[in-house]
């Protein structure tokens, strides 16, 4: 564990809180120390109120904030005397603790403080750091974990037996510290939980954390040698329908669409193919804190209903222990381990699934090292359940962003690099969907940098490439819910007398045949969509109202419309809706250069501005207008509509 301390960077940190932010980010940059909102840090200062009173203050990380990106706004100022008085109480309920911590805030607008705020407050050092370091957790989650930790740290660290996080842990650790702390004590080892270090300066607390974790890593390096991960068998070349079926089952149990992001790298495949996987992975997570992201156990294999029934049975057995009535969370897995496709991470969004993946990967590495030291012994099910249904932990999830319209769903958009296709990508992402963008242009990969976007350069007339793209999409996000057929070519104006066969076939190949191929290949995935598949075809005003010089384009779009109508008839029994849009005069697309636009406007005797609005409503139609309607067709408002054809043209007299 290398120190990331840089004196010049530290010198730029303003004041004690700025220093606290700096070293918090150093901790957060190392995933072997903390992951996704885990860990917490604090600093004690003296603040002056508006009335001129000096107040001893604890600045502690706000609940749910990520140490890797935290700013000063992520810390909550609390009255230190209030925390220390709370620590002297014999008991304190979660509800009372949350209320008292809220009352102790110097800034009502500050985030809810970490549930470990009281412990941070009573420890006398100015700076306090807390991590869930992988190496430490690995050692403590072995049959002889306490002995190993004691041998490793000696008198430098006080060992705190496992206690439920929150007030009980704060009181237990504080009593132990008061009774046993020595001048040499630099930290606390909370078994089944993590490490605390402290110091009078930010650097002292940070460097002590690095030193303690390094000892654990060095011990593991001396005593554990894991073989290179080599899968017994490689993943199958085609898994998309199997993955989509599993995603459908997971979504059904969850009660809402979920993404299933799968990973077939050697480490994931080798772990998922271990003969002793049920015995290893079936014991529990690295720390109770992880349960709100990953559930207590992964699904091993694909029997989702059996997994859900086991969760229901566990809830029935353990919930009566709660002093207050509990409502069961959905019983769907968040981690899937399967010998055919390796590791699967489940989430309502790509970012949520990536968090699950990160935690799962760190956990499987810890499990394998602990197993080599004598076995993996995490906390028992009852302890994990207590944290999973702990109101203060659940608040972290409940305070997150509201679910978007297409959360957990997957859309594929063709022609995604520009124009209407790119606008469709943006609109779908804003509505919470994961999106696969296909385009012949390589710029499709740069359309969005969000976790929920995958851009693939694909020639849609190449059936092998299209099939590979669908396979990649299913492995990336778990399946397909929405298909937006947008890609097409608009050749130069040419009369039928001048239209050669090669040009005709080229236009039909892109505008019609490639869409037939994609529809055929996508159908099995759309059929497995948790809320039913949806297809939106962007055709053209030229279907109901063709113009001279566009025979190939008009015929291809008319044939595509007929193809969509037949698909609507054939696929309705599969729960798949197919609808068609007929845009016209969408000028913010690649084919409408300023020169072409000016030439066309001049041919009508209009200014460019008047030509843009040359329709019944006198409005300009943009790519975004088309994209918004395409998304609306995929939404609940049109859940009873299929086979529809809707103009997006501002009103065209010939069409009307």
TrEMBL record:
Looking at the keywords, is Repressor present? no
Q: Which UniProt key words apply to this protein?
A: Oxidoreductase
InterPro entries, per database record: Aldolase_II/adducin_N (IPR001303), Aldolase_II/adducin_N_sf (IPR036409), NAD(P)-bd_dom_sf (IPR036291), Sc_DH/Rdtase_CS (IPR020904), SDR_fam (IPR002347)
Q: Show the Pfam families listed in the entry.
A: adh_short_C2, Aldolase_II
Could you tell me which PANTHER family the record lists for this protein? DEHYDROGENASES, SHORT CHAIN, SHORT-CHAIN TYPE DEHYDROGENASE_REDUCTASE BLR2146-RELATED
Which sequence ranges form a coiled-coil region, renumbered to this chain?
none
- Similarity comment: Belongs to the short-chain dehydrogenases/reductases (SDR) family.
Q: Tell me the protein's name.
A: Bifunctional aldolase/short-chain dehydrogenase
**Domain (Class II aldolase/adducin N-terminal) ranges:** 19-220
| Domain of life from the UniProt record | Bacteria
Per its UniProt record, what Gene3D superfamilies does this chain match?
Answer: Class II aldolase/adducin N-terminal domain, NAD(P)-binding Rossmann-like Domain
A single Gene Ontology MF term assigned here is: oxidoreductase activity
SMART domains, alphabetized: Aldolase_II
